[in-house]
């Protein structure tokens, strides 16, 4: 039974989001191109890359403990777990289309769309 009067040591803040990938170098280059950021950072421990973000960190991870060492790689997101923000949903959609990104939806309610990364993860862009 929980005691709601006890202060939790867990902060109510997201520090980062992990994205499972199969090839850390390929994923780093793809995400950096799509997000328009530098890929100069180091790959950590042979399987992690921290994308330079404005907000909570996005961590690309080959996930050796969670299936990254098997041929098919770690399990992918089958439902968007988070969203990338945009001020212009139409320009973002066209940019992704122009860059050959697999778009899974059209723009919905003039606010969002879903795409698939090269590893099969479903992700979202929202206005």
UniProtKB/TrEMBL annotation:
Gene3D superfamilies: 2,3-Dihydroxybiphenyl 1,2-Dioxygenase, domain 1 (3.10.180.10)
Residue ranges occupied by any VOC domain in the UniProt entry: 13-127
Xref: InterPro entries: Glyas_Bleomycin-R_OHBP_Dase, Glyas_Fos-R_dOase_dom, VOC_core
PROSITE patterns to which the protein is assigned, alphabetical: VOC
Protein name stated in the entry: VOC family protein
């Amino acid at each position: 039974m929980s005691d709601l009067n006890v202060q939790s040591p867990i902060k109510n803040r997201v520090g980062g989001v992990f994205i499972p990938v199969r090839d850390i170098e390929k994923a780093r280059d793809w995400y950096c191109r799509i997000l328009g950021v530098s890929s100069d950072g180091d790959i950590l421990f042979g399987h992690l890359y921290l994308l330079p973000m404005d907000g909570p960190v996005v961590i690309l991870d080959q996930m050796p403990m969670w299936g990254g060492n098997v041929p098919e790689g770690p399990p992918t997101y089958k439902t968007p777990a988070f969203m990338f923000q945009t001020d212009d949903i139409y320009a973002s959609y066209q940019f992704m289309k122009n860059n050959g990104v697999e778009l899974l939806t059209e723009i919905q309610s003039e606010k969002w769309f879903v795409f698939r990364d090269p590893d099969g993860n479903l992700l979202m862009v929202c206005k």
